[in-house]
Amino acid sequence: MVEQIQHPRPDQPNILYILADDLGWADVGFHGAPIRTPILDRLAADSVELTQHYVCPMCTPTRASLLTGRHPSRFGAHATVPSNAPVLPDDYVTLATALRSGGYETGLFGKWHLGSSPEFGPNQFGFDRSYGSLAGGVDPCNHFYKRGEYSVTWHSDGSLIEEYGHATDLITRQAVEWLECRGSGPWFCYVPFTAVHVPIKPTQESVAQYDGVVFDNDPARDASFRKYAAYTSHMDAAIGQLLEALERTCERENTIVVFSSDNGGINDLPLHGTDKYPGWQEAYPRLGSNLPLRGVKAQLYEGGVRTPTLVNWRSHLDPGTVDTPMQVVDWMPTFTKMAGVELAHDPQWDGQDVWGSIEGAVAEPEDRTLFWNFRG
Hints:
Blueprint: E1 14-20, H1 38-45, E2 48-50, E3 53-54, H2 59-68, H3 95-101, E4 105-111, E5 129-133, E6 154-156, E7 159-160, H4 167-181, E8 187-192, H5 204-208, H6 219-248, E9 255-261, H7 302-305, E10 310-312, E11 320-322, E12 326-327, H8 331-339, H9 355-359
Parallel strand pairs: 1-8, 1-9, 2-11, 3-12, 4-5, 4-8
Antiparallel strand pairs: 2-10, 5-6, 6-7, 9-10
Helix pairs in contact: 4-6
């Protein structure tokens, strides 16, 4: 379905949506983690924290909900679990499609995982520019996905490419270049990092900052968590580069920045019986934490579906916390309303516009039922 093109307005905010992969509730400094996340900590101090922001328990469902405003089960049972098959119908009007119809430039830099073949990639669903992994989390060094049909997945605008460098650095570099070289109109930049999904392969520089730090008396657990902490800190520094780009382009004041995670963290990972990712086979006896929440990724307990989430709009939002329950399906209704985009069809959203609660204009929102459908 094609939306009618609308002329951009001067009051339309830019939108930077940053999504971590498998980051736990207690894996950020502002939630008491021993992991160094100074960029996110400073952002949290200047942001509205959504203390009851709920996502889906795994990656594909959350990404589908974010970009459609609908529960993933609306698109079939395969959309409720990680999926390499195409999730969205052809020509489906996504958040990117809708914003583009309102005059926004749109870019995705990172993990897609809503259809792992190029013909079902981001450029077919509203993104002017796309780069990263068509499939799920990749080895950050060689950029391969799990063994099989979709192992080669690293792409630029749907064309598979070979490239040298750490995935976190490459994603950030491409996003920064796009932010600094695009036109003068409003934009939507979606940055779903592959970090901190396994394989956990931090850079030497990020590991070095934890020299002399002991996380665990068990040597294997200590070494495992040291890698995880360094990988997380590396992503934190990358987020700092994105924010610095906004300062250089003088767009920080008119940009809504959202940070979240696609699901809860995992506590550990045993050794796989096969070489699941080409060139990698490693056990992780200690990884992330969702404490004090119960549960982990791939579970419907709070630890699997409640994630650290920040909303920042300098000079527009006062720092603080909002305890109103919200869900990832709320972002498309919220962002399209803020952008002044009117759809030419009834999107049948499951989410709702929650900006009034975020900015504090709605003191007591109406009761609502949050819904999940997992594994079909």
